Amino acid sequence: MKRILVTGGAGFIGSHLVDSLLAQGHEVLCLDNFFTGDKSNVAGHLGNPRFELVRHDVVEPILLEVDQIYNLACPASPVHYQFNPVKTVKTNVLGTLNMLGLAKRVGARILQASTSEVYGDPKVHPQTEGYWGNVNPIGLRSCYDEGKRLAETLMMDYHRSNKVDVRIVRIFNTYGPRMAVNDGRVVSNFAVQAIKEDPITIYGDGKQTRSFCYVDDLVAGMIAMMEAEEFIGPVNLGNPSEFTMLELAEKVIKISGSRSQLEFKPLPPDDPTQRQPNIALAREKLGWSPKVALEEGLPSTLEYFRSVLERD
Ligand code: NAD
Ligand code: UDP
Ligand code: UDP
C-alpha cells in the first residue's frame, strides 16, 4: 500500500483516478481548490479511512509525506482556463514547481498530467512524442499550452538537476461521466444540448478533428505509466480513432435519440484543425492501448448527464 497524492483529485479525471487507486488498496490524499472540481465527485469516499480530502491551492507551498504524486491540478476546458489566464499560468508553473519541490524533499515519484495541447495546431499528423509542436506563445490558449510546456520543462530539469523520479503523460481529449455540465468542452456541450433538445453548437465548419478517449482507459494508462520502471516519457495517452465535430454531433444525436438541430458558431482563435495521437510508444513501453470505442463510451456519458440534469 502506498500513500498517494492526487492534485486536482475532485475534478473529472482526478476523481476517476482516485476511485482506481483506492480500489487498488492505496491511501489517497486528494487535494483541490474546487475551481472546476466538485466535492460530490469524491463524496462517496468521505467515510473511507484510506481517503483524505484537502482544500488547497497548488500555487501555495504545502508540506506532506507521500510516496507518489499525480499532478492534475489545472482547469482543462478552454472556457475555464481562459477565465483567469494569469492564474492558469501560476497553477501550471508555480503549482508544478511546488509539487516538484515536495517530490524532491520526500523522494516521491511524480507524474505530470500534460496535454496534447503542447503540440499546438500540429503540422505533423498523427502526433508523435518527438514532435516539438506548433504553438502560438501570445494567443488566448497560450496560458494553458505554454503553461503545460513549461511544466514539462520543470519536470525534466528537476529530473536532471535533482534526480527527481518523474513521469510525463500527454493526455489527448478525454470524456466520460463527471465532466461538469458547464465544462464547455465539446462532449459535455453536445451531450447537454442533445438531452435538453437545444441546438448543438458547432464551432466553425465542424470539419476539425479530435480523437476521444474514454476516461477509464485513460486512468489505466496513467497508472501504468506511474508504475513503469526505466521509462519516464513523455508518452501520449489517447484513443487514435479520429472524428470530425460533425461526426461527433451525429453520434450524440443518434445515441440520445434527440431532435436537436445543428447551429454553426464562429471558430475560436487558434483552434487546432486536427488532432490524433500516435500511441506506438505507450503500446511498446506500457503494453497499453484504449479498449472503449466512442460508440461504447457515449451511452454511459449521456446517462450521467441525464441524471445530473434531472437532479438539478
Ligand atoms: P477538471 O477541470 O475537471 O479538473 C481539474 C481539477 O483541478 C479540478 O478539480 C480543479 O478544481 C482543480 N484545480 C484547478 N486549479 C487548481 C489549483 N490552483 N489548485 C488546486 N486544484 C486546482 O479537468 P480534467 O479534465 O479532469 O483535467 C485534469 C488534468 O488533466 C488537467 O491537468 C488537464 O490539463 C489534464 N488534461 C485533461 C484533458 C481532458 O481531455 N480532460 C486533456 C489533456 C490534459
Ligand atoms: N515546496 C513545497 N513543499 C515541500 C517542499 C517544497 O511546497 O515539501 C515548494 C517550495 O516552497 C518551493 C518549491 O516547492 O517554492 C520548490 O522547492 P525547492 O526546494 O526545489 O526550491 P527552493 O525552495 O530552493 O526554491
Ligand atoms: N467545439 C464545438 N462546439 C462546442 C465546443 C467545442 O464545435 O460546443 C469544438 C472546438 O472548437 C474544438 C473541438 O470542438 O474544435 C474540441 O473542443 P474542446 O474545447 O472540447 O477541446 P480542445 O479544443 O481543447 O481540444
Summed up:
With 312 residues, the chain is of the alpha/beta class. It is 38% helix and 17% strand.
Description:
This protein is of the alpha/beta class and 312 residues long. The protein has a domain at 3-175 and 213-239 and 276-291: 3-Layer(aba) Sandwich (Rossmann fold), CATH 3.40.50.720. It has nine helices and 13 strands. It has helices at residues 12-23, 78-81, 85-106, 142-162, 186-196, 215-227, 245-256, 280-286, 294-311; strands at residues 3-7, 27-32, 51-55, 68-71, 109-115, 166-171, 174-175, 200-203, 209-211, 213-214, 235-237, 242-244, 262-265. The strands form four sheets. The protein has a seven-stranded parallel sheet with strand order 3-2-1-4-5-6-11, with helices on both faces. β5, α4 (142-162) and β6 (166-171) form a beta-alpha-beta unit. The longest helix is centred in the N-terminal third of the chain and has 22 residues, at 85-106. The radius of gyration is 19 Å and the shape is globular. It starts with a strand and ends with a helix. The model has no long low-confidence stretch (mean pLDDT 97). The structure holds nicotinamide-adenine-dinucleotide and uridine-5'-diphosphate (2 copies). Residues 78, 173, 185-186, 189, 201-203, 208, 210, 245, 267-268, 271 line the site of one uridine-5'-diphosphate. One of its GO terms (molecular function) is NAD+ binding. One of its GO terms (cellular component) is cytoplasm. Its main location: cytoplasm. Pathway: Nucleotide-sugar biosynthesis; UDP-alpha-D-xylose biosynthesis; UDP-alpha-D-xylose from UDP-alpha-D-glucuronate: step 1/1.
